[in-house]
Specification:
By secondary structure, this protein is mainly alpha-helical. It has five helices and no strands.
Length: about 100
């Protein structure tokens, strides 16, 4: 993960793009790219896997850039969120259910 973050940061540094990458702009970019990912599935399940990979990569790259900008470790914050979700969604109450934790 750290090697990928270094590669992404170098790519942006080489182009002097960091000046555009405020946390707010990166958050907007994540949403925009997520919408483009969703567009791949807009009308049916007949999607172009290459297009899905490109859009998913864009979302993930912007997420990693935001983590880097905020000096956050992506693995650490995902691990913390999974632990929190395990408490909110215990297997005994949530298995096979799509209900929100408040409705379990």
């Amino acid at each position: 993960m750290k090697a990928m973050m270094k590669k992404i940061n170098k790519f942006n540094e080489d182009r002097d793009w960091d000046q555009f990458h405020s946390p707010a702009n990166l958050s907007k970019s994540i949403l925009i790219e997520a919408a483009e990912l969703l567009e791949c599935f807009q009308w049916n399940d007949d999607y172009d896997l290459n297009q899905v990979k490109e859009e998913l990569a864009d979302v993930m790259i912007y997420c990693l850039q935001l983590a880097s900008k905020l000096d956050l470790d992506p693995i650490e914050i995902m691990d913390a969120k999974i632990k929190l979700n395990a408490k909110k969604y215990p297997v005994s109450k949530s298995k096979g259910s799509s209900r929100k934790y408040l409705d379990l």
